[in-house]
Design a protein that fits this description.
A four-stranded mixed beta sheet has the order 1-4-3-2, with no helix packed on it. With 75 residues, the chain is of the alpha+beta class. The chain contains one helix and four strands. The longest helix has 16 residues. Strand 2 and strand 3 form a beta hairpin. The protein has a single domain, classed as Spermidine Synthase, Chain: A, domain 2, CATH 2.30.140. It comes from Ectopseudomonas composti.
């Protein structure tokens, strides 16, 4: 039983080790986006933080944080 608990804990730890830290976008930054996995957009008509999770051309997952107008803004 201890062995199973140890293996489960080890599996969870290795999953956490692969968690990435989001990268903040800056002007002129080169982006290698092959596929967008998910995107979270700000609400309302103010500038807010958006988050995009994507795969690059090598299949590696990245998270990008950037600023944009809310998606509910109509002029």
């Amino acid at each position: 039983m201890k062995r199973i608990a140890y293996l489960l804990a080890l599996g969870c730890a290795s999953t956490l080790a692969h968690a990435e830290t989001p990268e903040q976008y800056h002007y002129g930054m080169h982006l290698d986006i092959a596929k967008v996995i998910s995107q979270t957009l700000p609400q309302g008509c103010e500038t807010g933080e958006a988050r995009m999770v994507y795969l690059d051309s090598k299949g590696e997952q990245h998270t990008l944080i950037y600023l944009r107008m809310g998606e509910d803004c109509r002029y």
